Each structure stands twice: as C-alpha cells, then as structure tokens.
Amino acid sequence: RVHGATSLMAEACFACQKTVEGSILKAVGHSYHPACFVCVACRQPFPDGNFLLLDNDVFCSQKCIDERHSSETCKGCKQTISLSVGSISALEGKWHVECFVCTHCRKSIADGRFNVLAGMPFCSEACVDLHKGPSPCIVCKQPIVGAPSLNLAKGSVHSACFACKDCAAAFAENVFYQGADGALLCRLCSDARGAAA
C-alpha cells in the first residue's frame, strides 16, 4: 500500500531520477512522480494503491512477479511455477505439487515415494506394469491378457504356446530346454539340435 502523501519539497524521483516538482508520492522508502510509481513488469499504475514488493521492486500482481522472476516450468503441465506456490524437485525437473501425480492412475505422489519408467513418475510397481501394457508371450509374441499363462525365467508364455517348437509335443512334467535361438524344446529335440550343431 502506498504509505505517503504529498509534499511540496523538491526531491529526485526514484524511478526516473528527475526532480519532482509539485506532488511527491512516497512509497517503500523512496519518492516518485505519481505517474512514475508503476509496476516494474507491466508498467501499469496502482489505482487502488495496493502493490507487491519483491527485491525492492514494486509489482501489481503475482503474475507480473512470476513473469519477471520465475523461470521454472512445471514438468507436468508445462506452465510457469509461481514463486508463491509450493513445488517439488524430482526427475530432473520442477513440478507443481498438484501436478506430481502417477502417470498411470493420476494419484498424487507428493509424499516422495514413487517408481520411474521412461523418466515419468508412478505411484506403484503395479501402475508401472499396467502402463507398460500386457507382457508379450515369448513364443508367439502376442500380449498375454486374460489367457492362462506361465511365468518362466526368460518371460511369460501362454499355456497354449507352452510346447516344443520343433515337434509341438507338450512338455512332460513341465521339463523343457531352451535352444540357442530362445525356442522352447523338449529333451529329444534339444538333443537333436545339439547333435546337429
């Protein structure tokens, strides 16, 4: 708020450095021509006498402060992060608190515990998996969704695909071998491939 009235003493205007003749406006410890006391960012006057002060500069709004002083952009919404709001530093960037959410389910993860996939935050490993989509079958390469499947050391396989690649025989007691090309083989076909090599 402007704290002074007028004075008839000659003083230098803080803004333009020229002598003030006539009315002097006193604010933030300085003297101004009434027309020179304006927002340093947008150059608009303060018709109601209210202003914001930052680093000895006067501003008409938080928006003008942000335009002049804030260079941080939210990694989530790509908007400027106002100096007047909280932010989070994570994943090589700054985020509005409300924008730091799980990439998959949009749940807030402002508590600081999160998983990362491709540089983006996730609230849980389950959301990472859901975001990646269904795993492909290591035999037919089609997604495994809703069909019975087996999890093997090298990946998952549809139950219907869990057979020898060379002879199509089902694996006795789930015993199988893996060829150099990654193919699932029964013992006989694995031995035959080994003998052929």
Structure description:
With 197 residues, this protein is α+β, with helices and mostly antiparallel strands. Helices cover 13% and strands 21% of the residues. Strands 1-2 form a two-stranded antiparallel sheet. A two-stranded antiparallel ribbon has the order 3-4. A two-stranded antiparallel sheet has the order 5-6. A hairpin with a 2-residue loop joins strand 11 and strand 12. The N and C termini lie far apart (89 Å).
The succession of helices and strands, N to C, reads EEEEEEHEEEEHEEEEH
**Structural class given helices, strands, pairing?**
alpha+beta
How many strands?
Answer: 14
Strand order in the sheet with the most strands: 1-2
Radius of gyration: 34 Å
Indicate the low-confidence ranges by residue numbers: 1-5
The total of helices stands at 3
pLDDT averaged over residues:
81
Shape: rod-shaped
- Residue share in β-strands: 15-25%
Helical content (DSSP H or I, runs of 4+):
10-25%
Terminus-to-terminus distance: 89 Å
Task: Sketch the major β-sheet.
Answer: 2 strands, antiparallel
Give a brief rundown of this model.
With 197 residues, the chain is an alpha+beta fold.
Defining key terms:
13% helix, two-stranded antiparallel sheet, 197 residues, 3 helices, rod-shaped, two-stranded antiparallel ribbon, alpha+beta, disordered N terminus
Summarize the SSE layout with pairings.
Layout: E1 11-12, E2 19-20, E3 25-27, E4 30-32, E5 52-54, E6 57-59, H1 62-69, E7 87-90, E8 93-96, E9 115-117, E10 120-122, H2 125-132, E11 149-152, E12 155-158, E13 177-178, E14 184-185, H3 187-196
